[in-house]
Amino acid sequence: MSRFWQHFITNGGEDEVPASPAPQPVNDGDALDAFSRVVVNVAEKLRPAVVNLRVGKGARAGGGSGVLFTPDGFLLTNHHVVDDADKVRVRLNDGSELSGRVVGNDPWTDLAVVQIEGNTFPFASLGDSAKLKVGQLAVAIGSPLGFESTVTAGVISALGRTLRSVSGHLVDNIVQTDAALNPGNSGGPLVDSHGRVVGINTAIIQPAQGICFAVPVNTAKTILPQLLKHGRVIRGYLGLHARQVPIAPDIRSKYVIDQKTGIEIMMLEEDGPAQNAGLWIEDVVVSFAGKPVTNIDDLQRLLTQHPVGMPAPVVVIREGRRVERTAVPGEYPSPVRG
Fold first, then answer.
1. N or C: which end of the chain has fewer CB within 10 A?
2. First CA to last CA across the chain, in angstroms?
3. Beta-sheet pairing, 196-204 with 125-126
4. CA–CA separation, 273 vs 68, rounded Å?
5. How far is CA 45 from each of CA 62, 97, 151, 199, rounded to the nearest angstrom?
6. d(CA 300, CA 305)
7. Does a cis peptide bond (omega within 30 degrees of 0) precede residue 144?
């Protein structure tokens, strides 16, 4: 948030305003200047941490973007940018080109980690995508169609979308933005007005305009430890797709539920762990393994932490009643590329 807006918001009502003369409205030009300053500041802060990635050679060459998140050369990008490559070419904002090693990738979330040698790189801070609000400023930086360090701005258009990744798996809780993206933006950061990464840009819908998607950064933060340690994500899976929904106040009071939201099951995979545990479509999951589930990120994090094959209690709200079942998470099967 710019100092202009911070002062405008925090001081509104705090200072005694005289009855006369009436306060002057904010000039449209001033507001535009404030917006511009925010975008300029974000661009200046983030562009040095955004890189261009190249994979393969000749007619089979491909590429995308990435964002450094540590000073010692670790960067986030999309799985579909690096694909099955072990090595990639990384071009920094200053034009220098280095060799990068693919440390780990996860086709399910379309995320990957690459490392370049060194310990003095500019890097971005990872934000909290759970705090995103529809309508807030969003800035995308990347290399669309080979035009490196391109900056576009827009807003967060919607939250909680579901998108089919390149592996064919449905990725929940996707962030939708109208910040313009094109081929080559994939793997680059979506950032907030403070310059914090809130998503990794992953997809566009062609020929639609202004409908672009990013994997929320909280999903990345959940799987990063395993990508860095194992090169892949060993995660439990229940075989369900869900969306975040509010829990009615009377239900929360009746069953002493502190949280205000849970996740409603929209689809169950045939013979999956959730179906075999007796969960139903329209059940609202409120806890897993004794820990609250307020959104998709919570469940994904808990399934990543919970040992595969170990039974876990699942508490749901079903038609106004509290129901508990026991589920045995399986391990995600290896994705099959189509």
1. C
2. 43
3. parallel
4. 37
5. 27, 21, 12, 16
6. 9
7. no
What would the mean pLDDT of 13-27 be, rounded to a whole number?
A: 53
User: Is 7 known to be catalytic?
Assistant: no
Residue range 236-331, CATH number: 2.30.42.10
Please state the length of the chain. 338
Q: Rounded to whole angstroms, how far apart are CA atoms 26 and 165?
A: 44
The answer to whether residues 202 and 213 touch, using CB atoms and an 8 Å cutoff, is yes
Long-range contacts of residues 63-66, Cβ cutoff 8 Å, at least 24 apart:
63/143, 63/146, 63/184, 64/142, 64/143, 64/184, 64/185, 64/186, 64/187, 64/188, 65/141, 65/142, 65/143, 65/184, 65/185, 65/186, 65/187, 65/188, 65/201, 66/90, 66/114, 66/187, 66/188
**Confidence grade of residue 31 (pLDDT, cut at 50, 70, 90):** low
Say if residue 161 is exposed, middle or buried (CB neighbours under 10 Å; 0-12, 13-18, 19+): middle
What's the chain's Rg over C-alpha atoms?
A: 22
| pLDDT tens-digit series, residues 304-322 | 789 899 999 999 999 999 9
Of 223 and 8, more confident: 223
Strand partners, 212: 177, 204
* Phi, psi values for residue 4, rounded to 5°: -60, -55
Cα–Cα distance between 268 and 238 in angstroms, integer?
A: 9
Q: What is the pLDDT of residues 101-156, one digit of tens each?
A: 999 999 888 999 999 988 899 999 999 999 999 999 999 999 888 788 899 999 99
Domain at 125-224: CATH code: 2.40.10.10
Q: How many CA atoms lie within 13 A of 132 on its CB side?
A: 31
110 is catalytic: yes
Q: Which of 80, 169, 241, 306 is catalytic?
A: 80
Structure tokens at 147: 């035009």
Domain ranges for the chain, please list them: 125-224, 236-331
* DSSP 3-state of 333: coil
Catalytic residue among 186, 192, 297, 298: 186
Tokens of 28: 């449209």
**Residue 187 φ/ψ region, left for φ over 0, alpha for ψ in the -120 to 50 degree band, beta for the rest:** left
